[in-house]
Design brief:
The chain is an alpha+beta fold. It has a single domain (10-254), classed as Cytidine Deaminase, domain 2 (3-Layer(aba) Sandwich), CATH 3.40.140.10. It has seven helices and 14 strands. The strands form four sheets. A six-stranded mixed beta sheet has the order 10-9-11-12-13-14, sandwiched between helices. A four-stranded mixed beta sheet has the order 4-3-6-5. A two-stranded antiparallel sheet has the order 1-2.
Length: 254
């Protein structure tokens, strides 16, 4: 009997002694969003929790604050969404006069980033927990990472409240993972203001801006924040926690 395999058949990465097989790869596809009939963004992302991705992006960019602020319709023939939002909300975002920049996120990501002082300030809503709470939270975050276990090459994010994870997502882009967990809370009609955010990569300016607009109290990472992220946090009353998993955590306060 021939042992030859169909070269065109898809193969699932095989785990070998805890390591990924050579053929492991992360899914990446384009997904578009139009706001009131105008193109708003195209994500290069992992095709999972896409409604949450769209809602989280809209909330993180300041277009919406709740599910009642948007009518989101998926395209039946393509990976994309149409969003209908009150014109005054759209104009408020456009009035910030954000400039297009090549962000420091995963890959070459064009975003519209506001100056730090144009982001609406939010009151300090709580301090992050100490390492005795943060480390078990990150341990749970990593344990939930099924796509990371399969490929070894994906980012994750989680919202946390009261020492518990309330939303978790993975994506090839760390900013997308953040949008997905914020969107999950919006979809569940659960206010995110005052919650904490765990991310697996560095805290860049775009991540800090999303967190600030959403009203999050703090963001923690095993890595470090960027200098612009620290400035955004300082202006908006947010706390950033670097080196949250090993060693002594670094707290950057406003």
């Amino acid at each position: 009997m021939s042992d030859e395999r169909d070269a065109t058949a898809p193969s699932k990465p095989v785990k070998r002694g805890g390591r990924m097989a050579d053929q492991a790869a992360v899914e990446e596809v384009p997904v578009w969003l139009e706001v009131n009939g105008a193109p708003a963004v195209t994500w290069m992302c992992t095709p999972h929790l896409l409604e949450e991705l769209a809602l989280g992006w809209l909330a993180g960019e300041g277009y919406v604050e709740s599910l009642d602020d948007v009518r989101l319709r998926p395209c039946a023939t393509d990976l994309g969404f149409w969003a209908e939002i009150a014109p005054e909300r759209v104009e408020r975002v456009r009035a910030e006069a954000r400039r297009p920049v090549l962000a420091s996120g995963c890959g070459a990501v064009n975003i519209f980033l506001a100056e730090p002082d144009t982001i609406r300030p939010v009151a300090v809503r709580g301090e992050p927990p100490g390492p005795e709470v943060l480390r078990p939270l990150f341990k749970e975050l990593f344990a939930r990472g099924e796509r990371y276990k399969d490929t070894g090459g994906i980012h994750a994010a989680a919202l946390t409240e009261g020492g518990l994870l309330v939303a978790h997502a993975e994506d090839i882009g760390r900013h997308n993972a953040v949008d997905k967990v914020i969107g999950a809370a919006v979809l569940a009609r659960k206010p995110v203001a005052g919650m904490g955010l765990l991310v697996t990569g560095r805290i860049s300016a775009e991540l800090a801006a999303k967190a600030a607009r959403a009203g999050l109290a703090w963001v923690a990472t095993p890595s470090v924040p960027s200098t612009l992220a620290v400035e955004i946090a300082r202006r908006t009353g947010m706390v950033l926690v670097g080196r949250a998993v090993s060693g002594e955590p670094h707290f950057h306060r406003g």
